[in-house]
Design brief:
two-stranded antiparallel sheet; mainly alpha; 14 helices; globular; 267 residues; hpI Integrase, Chain A
Length: 267
Amino acid sequence: MILAFEKHLHNSNLAQNTILAYMFSIRQFTQKYESVNKNNLQKYKLFLIEKYKPQTINLRIRAINFYLEFIKKEKLKLSFVKVQQKTFLENIISEADYNYFKKCLKKDNELYWYFVIRFLAATGARVSELIQIKCEHVKIGYIDLYSKGGKLRRIYIPQALQKEALLWLEKNNQSYGFIFINKYGDRMTTRGIATKLKIFAKKYKIDPKVVYPHSFRHRFAKSFLERCNDISFLADLMGHESIETTRVYLRKTATEQKEIINNIIDW
């Protein structure tokens, strides 16, 4: 049944990271409990509450509920735990640090990594989507991806980035195929990208906490709203199912809040 569920996940067009997370949750449950019933599900939820943070708990519950749908036991679905929302965003690379990062990479002729962060921050792509971009997509200026449920998402490549990337690819004699590949010619892994970005962060003395692939997607959203206050359009660009997910970018970072307070309050 578990193997059949894994096949079902792949057929549902879920991201690879989501599939791995869901399968981990199901295996964790089946290793602890012999059967799927209300009592065991409640025990599992209590186990999660004692061991994990709310976001992780809800990810595990989402996986279990997806599995319950698959085995036709929807009535046993677990409720999610409440996540206390912060009134500020944290660990997002600032626009100044992003520009500084680009400048350092270009100066050191690390153009491959320069374009990694350029594509992430200028398109809003997830790192799992970034590694799917090909030369052919750069040429036409966008990539079409299908999310779970077969929903189409178009990721646009801005004209300035498109022109710069095409010149880079031309110098590398690359006219087709994936653009972010390793020395063996295979697609770069998401973990490999995350690890290398941390190394560069330390080298350029940028806080490593704000340098991770998804941070640049957050940067895209924040910068977009500063220039175009259309949250509905941003939700479409980000591939969010609900506009409520996108509303978080209306909040300021802790650093921005502190700066405003310091500038405004003089009493």
